[in-house]
Amino acid sequence: METNAYARWFRGSTPYISAHRYRTFVVLLSGEALQHVNLTNIVHDLALLHVLGVRLVLVHGARPQIEQALPESFYHEHRRVTDEPAMGAITAVHGQLRARLEALFSTGLPNSPLHNVNIAVVGGNFVVAKPIGVVDGVDHLFSGEVRRVETGRIRTALDNNALVLISPLGYSPSGQAFNLNSEDLATALAITLQADKLIVFDDMRFVADDQGRRISTLTPGGLDSHFSDLDTPKQNRLRQLQQAVRGGVTKSHLVSFEDDGALLAELFTAEGIGTQIVEQQGRGIRPAQPEDVAGIVEVIRPLEESGALVRRERDRLEQEIGNFLVAELDGIVVGCCAVYPFGEQAELACVGVHANYQLGNGIGPSLLEAAEQRAAEGGATQLFALTTQARDWFVEQGFSVTTPEHLPQQKQRLYNWQRNSVVMVKPLN
């Protein structure tokens, strides 16, 4: 029976739904995004995240809207110098943008069973600001920067199932309002709240290599080489993604505000659609724990059903969990293997990678490398495996075909001649 594409997508997204629930995401919607025709779809996707249990802090920008209201603005080092009359116009613009966003979130999820969902949007004086002051002899007046974030108040609002909406304004203890840079504000919020993600919407769909191909994942250091060909605003946004991860945010994401569904594709598929910045690009191979059994079952179940693996009883998996290694991405078990010692030989068994993660992730070879290391540490000089359907893959990984007579005596006695598995061996350095 053939599974339709929607069912495959939904099943593939289910682990991400679980992984993202109760996580805190700071999202930056630039002023350009707010005036794009796709804004309504973006808000509906954010509303869906909220319904799925994601704790959202939404920061909006207003640069093009303020430019229209204040065409004679003066800039110093790409930062607006805000005098008192300009401050009045800026607060008015922010009020209009907030009202529009609050109205969009009030519609729930149109054309769905959740069209009547009640999303509470909360704002307030969550940001304490200070003036930038005089820089290079230029007094920036009411242009400010973040001094402190009232994290307790924000977390209380999130705990009460509210979506927190913050305009790029801050207030001094004396009651003075300051105009803030929205990118700086979103980054400060993400770091201070110890957010799980900072998501920045931009008209740049992703970071590309020299051939224009999408780079799905970069480290903060790896991002440095991609600044030179970008204009200053794009550089600033990428630097905020970089700074957030260096400041302790688990991941930051660059997502297009022009593409309908880009946010969902980035967050709920293995391949993503934008570019994510993470501190380490490691595959997350680690020893399995008892709580990983359910994840291992999800990985090997299709392989058991196809006959590629012999079925293992679930109580046996629990008993042998100490022999297993798992590959973890985004907190989800996406691959596994087991290593069983037989003196100078060790068996590699139960190798599997979830179907949604097999292309381009290199998880299988990473599992094999970890298995070889574990076997060698146990004193083995040779790794062997039995396979019926993955012979070519094992050959690609340096294994060669041999006969059952080369198996340890215990495995020879248990060899299933009816199954007729191919015996593969690989020497260990």
Count of helical regions: 14
| CATH classification class of the largest domain | Alpha Beta
Helix content: 25-40%
Q: Assign the CATH topology of the largest domain.
A: Carbamate kinase
> Largest sheet, if any?
8 strands, mixed
Q: Provide the structure class.
A: alpha/beta
Based on CA atoms alone, the radius of gyration comes out at 27 Å
| Record field, number of beta strands | 23
Quaternary class: single chain
Strand content of the residues, in percent? Answer: 25-35%
In the predicted model, the low-confidence regions spanning at least 5 consecutive residues are: none
Name of the CATH architecture of the largest domain: 3-Layer(aba) Sandwich
The best one-word shape is elongated
Considering the protein shown, what is the CATH homologous superfamily of the largest domain? Acetylglutamate kinase-like
Describe the structure.
- It is a single chain.
- The protein is α/β, with parallel strands linked by helices and 429 residues long.
- The chain folds into two domains: 274 residues, Acetylglutamate kinase-like (Carbamate kinase); 143 residues, Aminopeptidase, CATH 3.40.630.30.
- Helix content is 35%, strand content 25%.
- It contains 14 helices and 23 strands.
- An eight-stranded mixed beta sheet has the order 5-10-2-1-13-15-16-14, with helices on both faces. The protein has a seven-stranded mixed beta sheet with strand order 17-18-19-20-21-23-22.
Write the layout of secondary structure elements.
Blueprint: H1 5-20, E1 24-29, H2 31-34, H3 39-51, E2 55-60, H4 63-69, E3 74-76, E4 79-81, H5 84-105, E5 120-122, E6 127-131, E7 134-135, E8 138-139, E9 144-149, H6 151-159, E10 162-166, E11 169-171, E12 177-179, H7 182-192, E13 197-202, E14 217-218, H8 232-246, E15 251-256, H9 262-268, E16 275-278, E17 285-287, H10 293-306, H11 314-319, E18 324-329, E19 332-342, E20 345-353, H12 363-377, E21 382-387, H13 391-396, E22 400-402, H14 409-414, E23 422-427
Parallel strand pairs: 1-2, 1-13, 2-10, 5-10, 13-15, 14-16, 20-21
Antiparallel strand pairs: 3-4, 6-9, 7-8, 11-12, 15-16, 17-18, 18-19, 19-20, 21-23, 22-23
